[in-house]
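Input record, target 12 of the design panel.
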């Protein structure tokens, strides 16, 4: 209500252009490349779970490097509480103050986050599909199997990713003309010292409320596209 009162209804979509760029790069790679990478690693239905987590980490990490500039600009656009700044000016200010390097601020934690998130998401989803299918008798392609498995994966994603999400946001949200934290370790140390370890999971329920439906829609969509294009499903 405070945001609505001070910045108006449109403020809920601040940074949406950068969000589109992030999803088209990062999400396309982390989801679309998972099955091919998994199969290349030989992570079939009976393969060790770590191979499935490895496939998710590889595609997630690769996607995060490509999408990091969009992520940085999206975060700055969303947290800008002053007068509206044109997108071109926002990008120009970043390049002027920090150069190309500025677009990759927080890239280390972003890669770690993406590797953990996608490894947890795709690994848990892959394993959960087998377990749900075995317990219920539903096929792996059944929408009910996909829905239940996605929900389970969303819960474990929240547990593993929430701390990295907080650190990443703090690093990316630094002013363009100065640095508050020198890096991941410095930001993590200062956060824990100031607010305690449990603060890393602050906002757990809202994060899960975002991850669960998001994961479900993404995985339902990617499974549909895999099947429509004649590829093997997850």
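The sequence produced for target 12 reads:
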């Amino acid at each position: 209500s405070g945001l609505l009162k001070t910045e108006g209804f449109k403020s809920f979509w601040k940074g949406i252009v950068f969000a589109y760029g992030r999803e088209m790069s990062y999400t396309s790679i982390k989801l679309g490349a998972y099955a091919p990478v998994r199969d290349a690693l030989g992570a079939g239905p009976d393969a060790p779970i770590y191979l499935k987590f490895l496939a998710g980490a590889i595609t997630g990490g690769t996607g995060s490097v490509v999408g990091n500039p969009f992520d940085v600009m999206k975060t700055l656009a969303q947290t800008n509480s002053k007068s509206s700044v044109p997108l071109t000016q926002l990008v120009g200010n970043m390049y002027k103050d920090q150069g190309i390097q500025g677009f990759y601020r927080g890239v280390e934690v972003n890669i770690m986050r993406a590797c953990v998130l996608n490894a947890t998401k795709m690994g848990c989803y892959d394993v959960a599909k087998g377990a749900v299918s075995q317990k219920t008798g539903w096929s792996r392609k059944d929408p009910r199997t996909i829905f239940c498995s996605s929900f389970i994966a969303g819960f474990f994603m929240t547990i593993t990713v929430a701390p990295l999400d907080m650190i990443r946001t703090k690093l990316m949200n630094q002013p363009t003309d100065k640095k508050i934290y020198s890096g991941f370790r410095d930001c993590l140390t200062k956060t824990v010292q100031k607010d305690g370890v449990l603060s890393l999971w602050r906002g757990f329920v809202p994060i899960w409320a975002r991850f669960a439906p998001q994961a479900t829609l993404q995985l339902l969509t990617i499974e549909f596209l895999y099947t429509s294009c004649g590829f093997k499903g997850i």
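Residues 49-79 form the longest helix (31 residues).
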